[in-house]
Design brief:
By secondary structure, the protein is an alpha/beta fold. It is built from 5 helices and 10 strands.
Length: 190
């Protein structure tokens, strides 16, 4: 049985606007044991790809990315939404729309931490329309880094983002794929 799907079935809430509230293990409190088991799947899928760096976006993807990085033995780089005044770094930036927050923002990474030598595995918490993954892929393209794949905890398959990233020739592994969801009917998995 899929442990992530089971955690969603047992204790989730579907909010209006197709928002899945799973803050009991991912977006507020992190169930390290559960997500570590999920990261085993990312390792099985991408262990032979020569991953040198895991890339995510702040903030909900960071915990999962760190757990995956332990298995791959590589660092995590996370794209920031804001850089402080103490940054004099050259940056790669891309525009990203947040479905949950309903806002467009720029994400950036320091160019010195993402290079053409990197083989990048992108990890994120949710995949809906694919906006975050595409923005992270754009950062990699600016650095001439190689994207070896993407891993997400939850994919809302019915919103098409995963299919659009796969159409780019990039493999995507999702720990739970949702076919449909509503407050009335709950979550149905693919």
């Amino acid at each position: 049985m899929n442990v992530i799907e089971e955690a969603i079935r047992n204790n989730c809430k579907v909010l209006p606007g197709e928002v899945l509230k799973i803050d009991h293990f991912l977006n507020h409190m992190i169930d390290v044991s559960l997500l570590s088991k999920g990261c085993d799947e990312f390792y099985k899928a991408f262990a032979d790809k020569g991953v040198t760096k895991i890339l995510t976006v702040e903030s909900s993807g960071i915990g999962v990315a760190c757990l995956a990085a332990v298995q791959f033995g590589c660092p995590v780089l996370y794209a920031k939404k804001l850089f402080g005044k103490n940054s004099d770094d050259e940056l790669y930036s891309a525009s990203c729309y947040s479905y949950t927050k309903g806002v467009e923002y720029n994400i950036s990474v320091a160019a010195k931490y993402l290079t053409s030598d990197d083989r990048v595995l992108i990890i994120d918490d949710f995949l809906a329309g694919g906006n975050a993954l595409k923005a992270l892929i754009a950062l990699c393209n600016k650095a001439d880094a190689t994207v070896v794949g993407c891993g997400t905890v939850v994919e809302k398959a019915y919103q098409g983002g995963g299919d659009s990233v796969r159409a780019m020739g990039i493999p995507v592994v999702s720990l739970a794929k949702i076919a449909s969801m509503s407050p009335e009917e709950g979550v149905k998995f693919c």
